[in-house]
Amino acid sequence: MLDISVIIPVYNAAEFLEKSVISALQFEEVKEVILVEDKSTDDSLEICKRITKEHSRVKLFQHPDQENHGAAASRNLGIEKAVGSFITFLDADDYYLPNRFDAEKTIFNDSKIDGVFNAVGIEYLTEKGKQEFQSKFSDNTLTTVNYPAEGKEVFRGLLGFTPKTFGTFFHLNALTIKKAALEKHSLKFNKVLRVHQDSDFIIKLAYHCYLKSGIIDQAVAMRGIHDDNRITKIIRYSPQYNQRQYLFWNSLYEWSKPLPLEPDYAQHIYLQKKAFELSSKKGFSKMTSLLAAVLKNPNILRTKYRFTYSH
Fold first, then answer.
1. pLDDT at 31
2. What is the pTM of this model?
3. For the Glycosyltransferase 2-like domain, which residue ranges apply (predicted)?
4. What's the rounded Cα separation, in Å, for the pair 217 and 236?
5. N or C terminus of the chain: which is more exposed, having fewer CB within 10 Å?
6. Cβ burial, residue 1 (10 Å; 0-12/13-18/19+)
7. CB atoms within 10 A of CB 209
8. Three-class SS of residue 18?
9. What is the pLDDT of residue 108?
10. Residue 55 burial by CB count (10 A; 0-12/13-18/19+): exposed, middle or buried?
């Protein structure tokens, strides 16, 4: 039987936290639920303490200085403290469905499989949150990939190098990974990234580890969409958006430099990084830098770089 550590970063999630924890405790495969409380300003810490008293499988940790360090650092601390052979993640405002580990029970019988990913559904908790989400991501009810895949096909798909559109993302809530695989490749979340640290982690994971799709046509977990979802607050191609995209692609670029990536993959990562780096410049400096970049590699014009904002 699988022995799983579920890691839940907790920040201002008092309204949702207990439902999240209970959804993980329903599975006998779950050896422990690790709550990493990140200096919330609401009642989250008190709720964490109460839940740990009521449920022996729930463990509570805070950062050594008891300060706020973000979701990436909180997940890293959870991985460090985990004792299960398998690691899963769950956001504190989300929850697992009863089929959460159905695919894993059979797929992990193949010893070469390091990780399994599935589909995540969406639950709208507020009307404002629904409108903000749909204005940016349409009314897609599943966060998933478009077809089954495993091994290097997952990495290629996430970078957009497959003949069919694979999909750019699968959600951490539906990922199960062997802890030994994370340790073998020293894989952690990038603490510099306050957003996109999940996408950054997943792409690196797909390169180093053998991942396989599980249930991708129906949800195994649900995301709660409400007024305070950070990802919906960012205006696309605004200075804030471009800066966060730059940090994300620069993280992948720095990671990829010493690796034997295929030239097309390495160039794609570099050009995305360079495009969003240019987007932060203004005026004459921006135009001269862009011209120099185009002369060096015209393919930069095929990236998602935009001439809007911060001219």
1. 98
2. 0.89
3. 5-101
4. 28
5. N
6. exposed
7. 20
8. helix
9. 98
10. middle
| pLDDT the model gives residue 133 | 74
DSSP code string of 172-187: GGGEEEEHHHHHHTT-
Q: Mean pLDDT in runs of 10 for the chain (311 residues)?
A: 97 96 98 98 98 98 97 98 98 97 98 98 82 70 94 96 87 97 98 93 98 98 81 66 92 97 94 84 55 61 50 33
- Give Cβ neighbours of residue 83 (< 8 Å, ≥ 6 apart): 5, 31, 32
Taking the domains of the chain in order of start, what are their residue ranges?
A: 4-232, 239-302
Bridge partners (DSSP) listed for residue 60: 35
Q: Which CATH class is domain 4-232?
A: alpha beta
Q: Which residues of 273-289 are buried (b: 16+ CB within 10 A; e: fewer)?
A: bbbbbbbeeeeeebeee
What residues have CB less than 8 Å from 85, skipping those under 6 apart? 2, 3, 4, 178, 179, 180
Structure tokens at 62: 């805070």
**In 3D, which of 203, 201, 187 has the Cα closest to residue 155?**
203
The DSSP code for 4 is: E
Predicted local confidence at residue 294, as pLDDT: 57
Instruction: Note whether 17 and 99 are within 8 A (CB).
Output: no
